[in-house]
Amino acid sequence: MTVATQTPIKSVDEIFNDLKNKLGNFNPDFELEIKAKLAHEILQLKRDRNAVILGHNYMEPALFHSVPDIVGDSLALSRAAAETEADVIVFCGVEFMAETAKILNPTKTVLIPSQKAGCSLAESITAEDVRNLRKKYPGVPIVGYINTYADVKAELDVCCTSGNAVRVVESFGTDKVIFVPDEYLARNVAAETGKHIIFPTLNPADVGKQDPELDYELVGWKGKCEVHDKFTVEDIEMVRSEYPDVVILAHPECKPEVVAASDFSGSTSQMINYVETVEAPKYLLLTECAMGDNIAAENPHRDMLRLCSVRCPYMNQIQLQDTRDALLYNQYQVEIDEEIRLKALRSVQRMLEI
Fold this sequence. Notes:
The chain has 15 helices and 12 strands. Residues 1-5 have low confidence and may be disordered. The strands form 3 sheets. It has a 5-stranded parallel beta sheet with strand order 6-5-7-9-8, sandwiched between helices. It has a 4-stranded parallel beta sheet with strand order 2-1-3-4, sandwiched between helices. A 3-stranded parallel beta sheet has the order 11-10-12, sandwiched between helices. The protein is of the alpha/beta class. The protein folds into 3 domains: 4-117 and 315-329, Rossmann fold; 122-224, Rossmann fold; 228-298, Rossmann fold. The protein has helices at 12-23, 29-48, 61-64, 74-83, 95-104, 127-136, 150-153, 165-171, 183-193, 233-242, 256-261, 268-277, 289-298, 320-329, 338-353; strands at 51-56, 70-72, 88-92, 109-111, 142-145, 158-160, 177-180, 197-198, 218-219, 246-250, 264-265, 282-286. The radius of gyration is 21 Å and the shape is globular. Helix 4 (74-83) packs parallel to helix 5 and helix 5 crosses helix 15 (338-353). The longest helix has 20 residues, at 29-48.
């Protein structure tokens, strides 16, 4: 992995020219000039503090294309966090991602540029919910999407991402698996693995009681990503009526019927790889819209439709100025109780091993 102090610092003009080449069709020059100055300041601070910046695929384009050392999806950034030799990790992503970096690097300073970078999906389940599921289904392994907070990860058997969820579920070789918290991802995994899925209701009186319904192979949870929940089959039908040659790519956090109506479904990294390697007249991504902008900037020879665009309000909390301030003022530090961190570490490490 590249250590920040080994990376030469580009001048403001060089950064501006890079951004203009990639984003000039989307952003006016005056905006790119401001962003180039901020990016230059960030690169200086990054060198001075021996910091590494991790940027999720959903980051806004000017940030994504200027300051991160590593960009990618949750899995790629988790691996990068596990390998870094930098003293400071600035995680340009949402809170649960920064927590994962801290879980893997307890002695390093981990910063998240915004205190408001939450996640509707991560907030849909608590550690107590997982403990109650374990009581209701004793002996059934629990797989948890990486889009969960540290205290939830501490209760899991293993984490997974959208890109390896099927592989992780199948790795247990058991008849029954609990999968939390994403309802749609669980339904899509069930469809791909041929498992019958149920969604139990955990009433207080039922905790500790085994479910009388034995006809299940996958136990799901009713959590959703508020971005991917917005995409519909009607969106797809509308686009296809106007652009019949379009190839539609859907994130597996979308509804199963949306995934079924699409041409391809995969993680953000898998979607990027598809656009880069599979020739098509037109592409449409059903995922966070900043990622579509980032792919379009990297692949100007591809015809990317800018339709069905939804911005994540949590990812949008992190801009270049926030990233600069994180390094300048050492804010906002991610801290995790050590007992919780050690328990969560086991589930994350098992995911990385798989």
